[in-house]
User: Fold these one by one.
Assistant:
Number 1:
Amino acid sequence: MSECRPRPRSRYDSRVPTVLVHDPADPRLADFRNLVDGDGLSQRGLFIVEGRLVVERLLRESPLEPCAVLVTEAAARALGPALAQRPDLDVYVVPVAMMEPLTGFNIHRGCLAMARRPAPRSIDDVLASGARRLLVLEGVTNPDNIGGLFRTARAFGVQGIVLGPGCGDPLYRKAVRVSCGAALVVPFGVADRWPDSVAVLGQHGVPIFALTPGGDRSLEEAAALHRHGAPVAVMVGAEGPGLSSGALQVADQRVRIAIDPGADSLNVVVAAGIALHRLA
């Protein structure tokens, strides 16, 4: 982002320096132009956060680095206290009518933030941070499911998420929004040698509970044998194919969730939530 010093005193919060911009061609807004190209942003090491609640979570709770914020006047007022905590952040205030033509899509509640992607993490990095309550994903591509899994993981105290092959990007705009900002807070890493790299969990005393309809043990039985608060990794796969045979082979336990015989299956987010509630 370009430097804009000195910046005018905000009329929304005296502690928030804002820049009022009325020209969509203003070069200071270049990074917010045509944001539908998510791949282009990713290649530049950036990602977008959308919506007041999620942007506020980025500003207040996330270890990730925001670069700039694009807001309407109403959003600037609503986010005043959170923006005041980041006095060096570029905050651009634009008319509501300019938001969609500038960014290329309909903005949720007139608020966007640009942030830097964190350095890639491995499963070893996640473990080195001390995480021992984990959620492991294989082949989960849908951004709604990715976001829902991060939100669920945070609700049940998961300390880290491991992404296996074929998983979607947790920092994709929709995934972040669906996660209610949990994707900005819960650490995640990539298991690049699947499924062998997941076996390292056992070396750290973290048993893997694989959720599968053909599980050898019910969730109730597994939970009864698992000490409350002990390390655990719950592993889930994509809806439809489920976990691969390789993933199931590295699991310590294959666990099934009892459902009505007439039902086909559970959504992966729901299944993970039930298991995490009982185990983690």
Number 2:
Amino acid sequence: MRKAASIVAVLAVWCGAACGERAHTTVIGQGALKSSMDFSGLTAAGANGALFRKTLENDLARSGYFTVSTSGAGAYQVAGSCADGGGGLSVRCQVRDRGKSYLDKTYSEDGKKARRLAHKVADEILLAVKGVKGIASTRIAMVGNVGGKKDLYLCDADGGGLTRLTQDGAPCIAPRWSPDGNSLIYTSYRNGSPALYVMDLGTFQWKRVAGYPGLNSGGAYAPDGGTVALILSKDGNPELYTMRLRGGQLTRVTQSPRVAEASPSWSPDGNRIVYVSNAAGLPHLYIITGQSGSPKRVNAAGSENVAPDWGPAGIVHSSRREGRYVLCVYDPSSGTDRQPFPLDALDSDEPSWAPNDRHIVYTRTGGYHSDIYILDLDNPGEPPVRLTTMQGEWYSPAWSPK
């Protein structure tokens, strides 16, 4: 398992360094509803027009709110046209049901950006019809090991548009997004030892923000965007710190001799941090309030609990149960921990919330091979969707905040 033993990896580095809808709905899973959508009235001409339409259909189906129906059978009808013309893409999109128009807009875009435009239109349709903010235009960062070289990659929420961000020839791990979606913080061994870097996604320039002796890892932005949580071993064993990005002011949060911490994640209000510690022998989740509170162990089942990501819907994490790692969601308010999906033959790890607090992206590993998948927590009866198809090992995904 690549990251479910994250605390073990931290210890190894440390020791090495120091030693309800209308008709035409489908019931899915545990009562979630999907509305049928008929695309037969949307004509497509040219390669980019066809790509736009196909991407739009897939985005809306993947949203979890719609199914694609046969002609004349949908609760909602999508009509209009999408066609190449003079190097550009012209689109008119109308969405209606039997008694109401939800969307009627025209769009013009460079033909090379057909997929991007489709993502935008899909999100506009979801907002107009369901009143829900979509995720089609969001992105996912990850680590890819292709041909023995580990680098950061970026893709669209549907797995398309895969782009390589780094070409360092050195291992990198655990990218995490800034709250504004404009940068990533990650750990890289580009200089031979683990240091924290921030990459500006507008310029693709990077800068080192923490390069203390020993371990520098676990970078996670606070909701204010100006503070990060991180793990440093500069004073001995790996401890949890916070750091102001402007000025580099450090505050040590944990005081735990002979114990290692890892994988911090902030609460949505920025007042608490959940992290992994082996204080009880095996890795488990702990929550600490402020920068001087006493850590409290999360009451989650499982022999190990690792890789937390704290969102408004709770703390999604990976839990070792019956010899496998499975995804679970812990509710800090009630203290309950639920396992939304059953165990299967593969391990599930490194979950990251989508900004809609409904979907998650995660690493799925079996037979020493890892790929990136997404799950819809509101439709537990549906199988996970694989995003990575390019040959290689894929892990450490992080969903953008917008």
